[in-house]
Amino acid sequence: MTLSLRGVTKTIPLGDGRQVDLLRNVDFELGPGDSVSVVGRSGSGKSSLLNILGLLDQPTGGSVELDGQSLLGLPDRKLSMIRGRHISFIFQQFHLLPRRTALENVWTPLAHIRDRALWRQRRELAARALARVGLAGKEDAVPETLSGGEQQRVAIARALVHRPRYVLADEPTGALDGETAHGVMDLLLDVTRSQRAGLVLVTHDVQHAMATDRQFRLNEGTLAPLVPEGSTR
Amino acid sequence: MNSALPLLSSAWRELRVHRVRSLLAGLSVVIGVAALVAVVAMGDLGRAAVQEQVERTVGRPATLSVDLTANGEQTASRTSVDDNAEWIRTLGVRALSRVESRQVQLDAVEPSSAGPLGTTVMGVDAGYGSVKRMDLLAGQWLPEGTPAPWAPPLYLNAEAAAHFGGEHEALGSRLSLAADLPTQGIVLGVVDDSRGEPVAYTDIRSLRKWYSESTAPETAEILMTVRPADTEQVTSAVLHHLGAAGLTGGERVHRVDDFASYERILKLLQAVLGAIAGISLVTGGIGLMNLTLSQIQSRVHEFGVRRAFGASQSHIFAIILWESVILTAVSSLLGTVLSAGIFNAVLATVPEFSGGIQFPVTAALIGSSAAVLIGVASALVPALRAARLDIIRAIRT
């Protein structure tokens, strides 16, 4: 069960006719239970990498594979199904749906999976997920009434409620203060490990990156290990 | 998950989340449907009112008149009128009445401030009340089968009664029918015949007692109600029968109720009003599309998030479509209930029509279906736009 990128490139045109390479020949693999972090400066291609891994965007070259099967060229319906089942996101700005309760936000992924049983159990599953991230009793709270840390916890519960294989976290602590950020980071690592979900963590914070199993640096579209092989941390 | 249950559930929840927008959009549909149904209902009400008026003044459908005035001056003999009436009864007509009219001076026997009233007295049979709609405003009818009374029983219409003091005051009055005759009639009732001019009705047998056959009535006719489908057949048979008796002329028998011409006008009016209501429904639909489009703009972020969590393009499309269907269906239901309330309220003010008019269920169904279709049509473009949103840009919105 591996999500892989093989020789992926992403090029976008600039307004003056030139092109810029966001990703250059990237090879990447993520298995269940893996935790991988990617660090890099702004504009280094981190978000592009996550978007392609999350099937939100198509690479210009190379291939995206799930268990060795190329996902390129699949119709939207199929890609949406794979994304809904197996891949989940945690965003820096939380991206919770306003005016919906925490419970409704958490069960959002369950509304898009073709599984009637999951839909019927949505309340229980969402409540359990909220309890897992320490928000029992906040089921009916709307995002507008929650703190940043609480909102990101709701987002983590939403990302894991349907037990996806892979969680892609794009600077999940970027909008939080230091202490809250640490708490959220610990929670994220804890729950993904307990569910044996593969985690890709894009972050600026090397300290957080070091909490994952593997670390990469993305520099001008090129992905390389943060710590060169053979060297010690 | 494209199965209906989560979609419906999501759509209903989203409508509740966007309460104000839903209320505004729904309101336009409610008004459109209510207007459409109300227009049809009012058309039915108007139709019933006109039909009632026609039934009062000229007769129920189909009323045939057999004119027994010869050469415009001489009437057929009483025997001829009676014989023809008896023969026509054998055709199985629904109702029949002989009618003779005379111009008389009605005058109160007891001292009264009301002077004499020059009016038409019509001698009719009991069947007259079946041929024409004639509602009793005051007094009572003579029981059927009553022998010809010595004093003519008089039924004044509202206009004649007004001359003698009003509906209730005129009841029981004794009125002389002519200065040179010792005839006095008793007012037994006041009727609404919508003629607009004073008329007194009496039993034809009583009328004949007091006028010799030599004093010919101004008009003599036989009125009858037949099944509309039998009109031509009965007309032809009566004409043939009269011709054999020397009473020739095709104009002697003719249909007098002209409801069909009123109905054409009513249908035209109803079509015009229906078109106006339809336009309001379409305008509501355009408003709905406008609101849905602006809503899509404000929900771009939401659709981006949903797409990230597995919603396909078709799912987003279906959510918006279902929202519109639910909104228009619920609004149509409310519009129908509202129009039914208005309909009943209006009907309560005109109880005389309440028996003949039903709530236009067909119009309600057509209006509601049209509203749902308009809802679907108005959601198509916004739904397509939402489905085709770029996910990454949508999330960043």
TrEMBL record, chain A:
Keyword Protein biosynthesis tagged: no
Q: Which residues form the ABC transporter domain?
A: 3-230
**A single Gene Ontology CC term:** plasma membrane
Stored PROSITE patterns: ABC_TRANSPORTER_1, ABC_TRANSPORTER_2
**Record protein name field:** ABC transporter ATP-binding protein
Q: Which residues form a coiled coil?
A: none
Transmembrane ranges, per UniProt, are none
The UniProt keywords, alphabetically, are: ATP-binding, Nucleotide-binding, Transport
Database matches in InterPro entries: AAA+_ATPase (IPR003593), ABC_transporter-like_ATP-bd (IPR003439), ABC_transporter-like_CS (IPR017871), ABC_transpr_LolD-like (IPR015854), MacB-like_ATP-bd (IPR017911), P-loop_NTPase (IPR027417)
Per the record's keyword annotation, is Transferase included, yes or no? no
What GO MF annotations does this protein's record show? ATP binding; ATP hydrolysis activity; transmembrane transporter activity
Which organism is the protein's source? Streptomyces cupreus
Under Pfam families, the record lists: ABC_tran (PF00005)
Organism classification: Bacteria, Bacillati, Actinomycetota, Actinomycetes, Kitasatosporales
TrEMBL record, chain B:
Write down the membrane topology.
Multi-pass membrane protein
Q: Name one GO cellular component term.
A: plasma membrane
Q: Does the keyword Transmembrane helix apply?
A: yes
Cell location = Cell membrane
Record keywords, A-Z: Cell membrane, Membrane, Transmembrane, Transmembrane helix
TM ranges: 23-43, 268-293, 314-343, 363-384
Q: Where does the record place the ABC3 transporter permease C-terminal domain?
A: 275-390
Enumerate the InterPro entries for this protein.
Answer: ABC3_permease_C (IPR003838), MacB_PCD (IPR025857), Macrolide_Exporter_MacB (IPR050250)
Instruction: List each copy of the MacB-like periplasmic core domain by range.
Output: 22-237
**What GO molecular function annotation could you give as one example from this UniProt entry?**
transmembrane transporter activity
The highest taxon in the source lineage is Bacteria
Q: Which family does it belong to?
A: Belongs to the ABC-4 integral membrane protein family.
What name does this protein carry? Answer: ABC transporter permease
